[in-house]
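hi! just following up on the protien thing from before. the input was this:
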Amino acid sequence: MTVFQPSRIDSRMTGAGLGLRRDFMAELEQTMNSGEGFRKPDFFEIAPENWIGMGGRYARDLREYTERYPFVCHGLSLSIGGVSPLNIEFLKQVRGFLDAHQISIYSEHLSYTHDGSYLYDLMPIPMTLDAAKYVADRVIQAQEILGRRLVLENVSTYAMPAAEMSEAEFICEVIQRADCDLLLDVNNVYVNSINHNANARSLIQAMPAERVTYLHIAGHDNEDPALLIDTHGDDVTKAVWELLQFTYDTLGVRPTLLERDFNIPTLDILLNEVDHIRNVQASVLASNRSTPLHLSA
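and the predicted 3d structure came back as:
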């Protein structure tokens, strides 16, 4: 097994990021070039599936962005916990895309999305030791093809089939066995704490700080007092902002990205939430007098 070293020493990759959408690329670029003190994100995230093989104006625009700004990639369809063999050709395409744009960080969901055909949802993996071993072996295989560490994201779930261990134990088991890194989604932690009557702060305290590469934060839908749906289509709630601050206090300030995939508001509203991330980071850094941890590009 090849050992891939984590790389987080790039001062550009700090602060607050935003998922880059084609919808507002032109507006964002125009405003960033206006010279009016525009609040631009510190880094961007894209799903490689949305860009691999794309040509024309959008491909040129993306190239201009990746040459000027730090980027991470967040995948949608690897299905690292699925029963079907890993899609080797897809992984090779992802590696080519990452290398071409000099993006070192590629994250995916600790779930499965494929059972012979794509399910278009993030399905929960049974939290058992056998499943952790199985997933870890697939992560190792993927990392060999990618030529870099895979970064796994904890996901929101609405059922816990055949669970023999806690979510925190399962996440840590996979990461340790695979020697990979963690994208900690704070909103998903909160959603699961409500859906499964769990302690969100205890899960965060159990995470291996040295493996947490960056964070996600997003909004969710209050379907019921005991059921939250991770939609990425609402504003971040007060409870999740408070959990983000607790995460910084516990694990250290990490680069943090705002996810918004539905009910997209104006760019100004999005950037207000990006600024809120920065404000929380600044508050924690001021009180702790600690140094922010960086993420490589």
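The mean pLDDT is 90.
The domain at 16-288 is CATH 3.20.20.150 (TIM Barrel).
cheers
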